[in-house]
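[job 0417] fold request received: serine O-acetyltransferase
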Amino acid sequence: MPRDIAPDSLNDAPLQDSREWGLSRIVAELRESREELHRTRHPLGIRELPSRDAILKIVNGLRSALFPTHYGAPDLTDESVDYYVGQTLENTLRLLHEQIRRALRFLPEYRDTNDSQLNTLAFGIAREFGAQLPAIRALLVSDIKAAFTGDPAAQHITEILLCYPGVWAMTHHRLAHALHKLGVPLLARFINEIAHSLTGIDIHPGATIGPSFFIDHGTGVVIGETAVIGERVRVYQAVTLGAKSFPSGNDGVLVKGNARHPIVEDDVVIYAGATILGRVTIGKGSVIGGNVWLTHSVPPGSNVSQGKVREGAGADAPRNGVGGDNGHGA
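[job 0417] inference complete; emitting structure tokens
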């Protein structure tokens, strides 16, 4: 506050005329930017958009239904928990149904679908998504157990569920991936970006990730859209599974959807700061050391550290972050 203006005098200041701000000119120039110079609106002029607030409520409701004793009502009993889960799912799936309906409008295949048909289609997708929730919970429990097994600092399952950013990010990803496969990519991206903003872990909803996946620490992890990760894989902070190149079409727009991210087979460990780019395959049981930059495939059992690859050594390689050949030493 300027020193020459007393706080009490602000209450006596006259209301400013909007003309003194030049609002008419600003509004006119913003309209010109929106409608002519720098358009961002959907080509069909869609104004009914999915709601970020609604999607936050959906994710919170789903999390509460999946793990009611950790994220649900504090006074749940064995007698009341099923009622709570049912009521929570009823409200959450109704909200999801509406958000799916809005999101489907952005897909070209539904451009000419009437409102009634779109509503019916959205209900069917929400219903199918609900039917997948037990399987999604089973995957999440495998991730939680992997965190407990793989982290010597983990004291118990409750700590992991409530505190671990990797598990938080995977909860969002498992839900988002299911929606992505059901044909609602916009909502899926919403869900994953919420987790990204909260955890610093960026997983595209299209990435396929097997059970018992553990992200330790997690900040800066990036997993691309077409990445395929097997079972019992562990990654540490700042790991990137990215694309090596980005081909473009004749119109200069990058080609969408081509397989451009790594395949990581079962039982692989990737240490902090490693970058793996392109459609390469990391063979089963391999260990990728810290800060390694890798753009080619390695066979099963490889041990890759900065400047060298030792093939067939994965089974005997150290996995606790100690030793030169895993990238944490020399």
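[job 0417] notes: Residues 40 and 59 are 27 Å apart (CA to CA). Residues 207-248+255-330 form a domain with the UDP N-Acetylglucosamine Acyltransferase; domain 1 fold (CATH 2.160.10.10).
[job 0417] exit 0
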